[in-house]
Amino acid sequence: LMNGQLQGRTVLVTAGGTKERLDPVRFISNDSSGKMGYALASAAADQGAKVILVSTIHDRAIPAGVTLVQVESAQEMLTAIQQRFATLDVIIMAAAVADFRPATVAEQKIKKTTDNDRMSLSLIKNPDILKTLARQREQQVMVGFAAETQQLIENATHKLTEKQLAMLVANDVSKKDRGFNADTNEVTILRPHQAPEALPMMSKTALAEALIERILPLLP
Ligand code: C5P
């Protein structure tokens, strides 16, 4: 891959699992490590892009040329992206966004009580960030990820269409050495009107470069 191919472009990458607060000391989240998002931010910066990394994970080294924006919840992630959306050329949603959040956030730590051994949480649906952005889309090339545990291609194809994406990177997270928290990943790339492209297992660093290479021809 030649250098500097994203010179003058702004790329926003999201990373990590969103944290959905229950109370001041508790949240609901998931196993996403943020590794894929960080690798993508680094690969985009290597190509000369201005890179904004909107992440729930901030204990990792920030790659050179990358600006980190720290967020916690899906709603914060959406707001952080919307504030910058008009300036973006590419948005890559590598974050694992929680589908639901607690319906209310308790101001004080939730207490256990002696009179009941069971408690239920009421959850409400989070906004779908990609779907929301699709409605405001102009020049932006939007790329999504789909972690599936069954019927990978069918489920991913549905998401590609539903979220109106230029590219969807689908991976099978039912296997241990790929996807969530692993250093390697094996994905299938879906694009509208194109046959699925299955990539071999590779490091997330190598995969990030392969993905950036495939995003370049999608830019207007
Ligand atoms: O959770 P789901 O499989 O639908 O995620 C597919 C893609 O959509 C991912 O790129 C994820 O970051 C994004 N997503 C989103 N807003 C949500 C849920 C997922 O943008 N509320």
The gist of it:
Its cofactor is FMN; Mg(2+). The chain is an alpha/beta fold and about 220 residues long.
What's the helix-strand series? EEEHEEHEEEHEHEEEEEH
What's the structural domain tally? 1
Please compute the radius of gyration using only Cα atoms: 18 Å
Q: Note the total helix count.
A: 5
What's the shape? globular
Q: What portion of residues is helical?
A: 10-25%
As residue ranges, the low-confidence spans are none
CATH class membership: Alpha Beta
Q: State the CATH architecture.
A: 3-Layer(aba) Sandwich
Walk across the major sheet and give the strand order. 5-4-1-6-9-10-12-13
Sheet of most strands = 8 strands, mixed
- Average pLDDT level: 94
Structure classification: alpha/beta
CATH fold name, please?
Answer: Rossmann fold
Q: CATH superfamily membership, which one?
A: CoaB-like
Tell me the total number of β-strands.
14
Bound molecules: cytidine-5'-monophosphate
